[in-house]
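Sequence in, structure out.
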Amino acid sequence: MKRILSIALVLILSLSLLAGCGAKKDADKAKDETNNASSNLASAKAFLENMIYGTTNKPGDVMNITKDKDVIASVTVDGVSYPIDWSIEITEGAADSVKIGESDTANHVAIILPELAETDIYFSAIATIKGSDDKTEKVTFKYMMPCTLGELEILDKAYALADGEKLNGTPSLTGDIVEIKVPYDATSQSITVVIQIGDLADKKIVCNGLKGDVVAYLAVGDNICVKGTLGKAAGMAAFDNGCTLEYATNPDGENVTAPTTAPSGDATTTTTPSNSTTAGTKPTTGTKPTTGTTELKVVTDQAKILKDAAALGENESLSYIAQLTGKVLQVEKYDEKYGSVTLTFKVGDMTIECYQMKGNGTDKVKAGDTITVKGVIKNYFYEGATKGKIEFAWHEASGTEVTMTKLVAAPSQDLSTVEKIIAAAKALKDGESLQKEVTLTGKVLDVETPYDANYQNITVNIVVNDLTIKCYRLKGNGVENIKGGDTITVKGTIKNYMGIIEFDTGCTMTKRVAGTNTDKELSVVAAPKAGVAYKFGMVQENVDKKAVYYLKGGMSGYYMATSSSSTAAIDVYLEETTDGFYLYAMVNGKKLYINMVISGTHVNGAYEDTAKTVYTYDSTAQTVIAMVNDAPYWFGTRNDKSYTTVGPCRTEYEGFYCKFYA
């Protein structure tokens, strides 16, 4: 009996051992498969990282992206396919502006960017790699899409909005303070100012509740950069309350800093913003390398370079060698002695000078060519300047020269005849120049700026065929004698400057044939009558004590163009209407009414098809006056200016105003 029990126990133990060995084998196998799956997921992650980052980036880097990007939708490791789910998280910029979409490439999806970015967009593309056992690996790739709009384009889009609407994101705009709308408030530590970009007086920007460490010390005339939510309110572009000051410089280009005394915005307190002596200054990204630097890295990211260059302070240089590709706008003469050339080219929205650039082919570069340049960029301030000039320049600390590394020549312009020169000049875009100097002969329409004895130059307008060309700061023997009606021959570079075709600075008169001066000396008409042709002009005493600047039709920027030639002047008429007169002119044979129009907070003069402005005649001032925005305006310019153009001005300001001449 014991023997039978012993055999039974042995059999039971044996079966138990066999069962235990099988279970262990199965468990080990499952463990191996789990380990392999985890290992394969890790391999898939590493493969994806290597594919996206490449050799120039590493995990954590923010990568620049300017166009749609295809990314892989699955990774195969050891014969097993691991699908990837992609998602987007936007950390700065318009929500949902970047999306994941379909790709034309097999086993890929696309990161789809917006057509326009009104501000820099920072986002993460998140890849979730899925395993067969529901385990996942996540990889986050950081990207930045730079703003595709220039400041003027952003401003135009803001003014195109309806009141109450907002642009996407938080764009930045830079302008000069023209008005302190709400003084600094110590409690909220904010100020409300109005800024203006360049001469865009009809497109000012309100900065509501502007905050920043030096806002207490801002003044009219300071140049500031503001960032925030931008929209339109009461007909004007406006940053929302709480917008932030990026930097501020005074009219001399120096950073705005706190004075030793408390801010004057609140007489009841001496509280100053924290860190006010150092904060709010212009960014110094890419500060000037110290003497002795012998080696600088090369950066090719155009968006980064342009952003860093725009942030340079006075006479600061980038701390690296920049490589940029752009289109040549204008070329100065090649210097055979030094084998170099100085030119300007455009990269994105920035115009950059390449000072004494060397390299193979620099003697052949012409306007319209596309070049690649390497060197150190500097924000150059000359003595007395209020704003700097961005330029590639020789870098003393590292001995880096400005070098052209690539030249893609534009098709040559056929400038063999006057007709072909005129056609090419008309085709120029703003900032562009003809590829070489040309010589043209034309009739002087008028003298725009009288002869300057100190600089020995004069600015005149000539007509060649059907094109009016400005000769800007024209030099040459006898230019002081130029009068309307003369025929002159001019040599120089023709460019498009803000829509005006002109011979650029440095143009020279090579010949002058005196014409018959058809100008008549006109006198002021004390009591003009309706339906009679007059010339309408002003004496700008800051420019010339005697010359009268008459309306000549057309605009000069946002103001009405004038001519000191009565022959070039248009005929202006009074037309009776209820409660006064309309004012109209004959411009190129067409009747156009001269109106005062409201643009934002600014009032402009305009030539329009229909009459909108009613004028009354002031016999004491001998001019017409209109009520606009409940205030009286006349045509002219203020006496603290030297403008020869005309626009509506408030009668309360002293100035030079237009009268009727015959």
